[in-house]
Amino acid sequence: MKKDLAYYMGLPYRIEIIRDADEEGYVACIPELKGCITTGLTEEDALESLKDAKETWLASAVENDDPIPQPDVMKKFSGEFKLRMPKSLHRLLMENARNEGVSMNQYCIMLLSMNAVLRQSGLQMQ
To answer: What is the 3-state secondary structure (H, E, C) of 20-87?
Structure first.
């Protein structure tokens, strides 16, 4: 069954609003909809303008039968991925995990979690 504009307009797409110091205003976009971007003098203006940009973007895609990505929050994630690494890094991670008394899987999850938290807070791992 083909989905219509109303269906896509109701999906929970992520919105980003960023202050543009050079232009003294705000830039708003929907990252999942490539090119769906607009501006406004205030955050409210940018958000209101983005509603129109989203509708125009989606209407064009529906009319042209272009692929429309699902919002990231609707995607299913298995929690698994394979990773290849240099043997020297593998050995280092294994040694560190053993020193911590945990599996390499637990150790790597801890490292990734720490990095994600630091990035979200604007800091970096040292």
So the answer is: ECCCCEEEEECCCCCCCEEEECCHHHHHHHHHHHHHHHHHHHHHCCCCCCCCHHHCCCCCCCCCCCCH
